[in-house]
User: What shape does this take?
Amino acid sequence: MKSFLLYGKKDVRYSDIPYPEPTENHEVIVKVKSVGICGSDIHYYKDGKIGDFIPKEPFALGHEFSGVIEKASPLHPRLKIGTRVSINPSRPCKTCTTCKAGKQNLCPDMKYIGSASVYPHLNGGFSEYIKIPAENCVTLEDFISFETAALLEPLSVVLHALSLAGDIKRKSVLITGAGTIGQLCHMVANLYTDEAVVITDIRDSALEKAQEIGTTAALNPKNSNFETEVISYAPEGYDILLEASGANTILTNSVKFLKKGGKVIQLGMFGDGAQFPFAAFMKNELTYQPSFRFNNEYEKALELLQTKQIDLTQIISDRFPYDRIPDAIEKASCSLNDIKIIIEN
Ligand SMILES: [Zn+2]
Ligand SMILES: [Zn+2]
Assistant: This one.
């Protein structure tokens, strides 16, 4: 069957691999229809790894995807052949103490689809057919498109981050980075707060997109009046900073906009050499809260789509056919104007 595997840095290649066969009764085979290219896929592509997840053998990237049931499971009659589904890529063990403590996203035995974090690696949506536990398949109503259903994963990531912020109804929010995650941050934050939601990025095109979707303000640090403008929307400082850029100096440059006792929620993945402004955190009693993947937010993300509170098509900037996956990831890795690139099958 068709598959595009990551062989190493900048090397995603067509590979004919065997069709998966369900090995356990609770598994189904899904034919992939849409896949989103994520920042972490780009890390794998550019660096051949992400953090300490280093692939031991070629595998298929793509953890943001949707599709149809190709082979059903006798134990799960709700998932008939042809049922449209979105795939929750998170497979915690559910039995360890971390899982039992309600932090399944931190499970040490996590099997994440389309990730090299466990071995054997679990192929993701860059393979056309995938074996999936039935419980990871979320059924879709007809009006939800495959491409938006593929984006439930990043939406879940953002919902998890905001759950760590607590109730934000009367809180001002500053977001750094206007890629997919940053855009979703302002879309979700605007649902929950009455106060200002301001986003920053060095790319004007990304800021224009944020403004078009509708946020309080979208500001570029390259502009001379940037600081004054940022402060003008929250004169006493922001309550929450959602850091979604992963830029090495971003915290040093941004903590000054926070209120005393404010909170930083980290979504962006830092590279080596990132700076941390210890003194600013100390003297202002700031809280630094990293947010990793998501916990049980997938259903909640689906609900936002089903109730039409969020329109994820707004962040899709380009689409590629399945056979052009290598072109799609190459473009995603160097384009400054794209937000989310989607692959369609
Ligand atoms: Zn992702
Ligand atoms: Zn566990």
